[in-house]
Specification:
The protein is an all-alpha fold. Helix content is about 80%, strand content about 0%.
């Protein structure tokens, strides 16, 4: 099976797997799969929120700042990311 995208399956497919493993006793496999599902669901919601926040901030910034100021902010942000990646 070829992996498409970043994950081998969707969250809906993972939820089906979690439900199929649930034997009602809360076994270790179920607990781990349930934890992974909850973690990935929360992570997806977090990133979606961050994308919306960034989009709104960019819209506001583009209304009030010049193109030069926006480019300078972008350069500073890239420098911070590179600095953190190097640590």
């Amino acid at each position: 099976m070829a992996i498409q995208g970043k994950t081998p399956s969707s969250l809906a497919e993972l939820k089906k797997l979690v439900d199929s493993v649930d034997d009602g006793e809360g076994g270790l496999e179920f607990q781990w799969l349930d934890w992974v599902y909850n973690f990935l669901t929360a992570r997806k919601a977090y990133h979606k929120k961050q994308q919306m926040k960034k989009k709104m901030m960019m819209r506001v910034a583009s209304e009030y700042l010049s193109q030069d100021e926006l480019e300078e902010i972008e350069r500073q942000a890239e420098a911070l990311v590179e600095k953190e990646a190097g640590e």
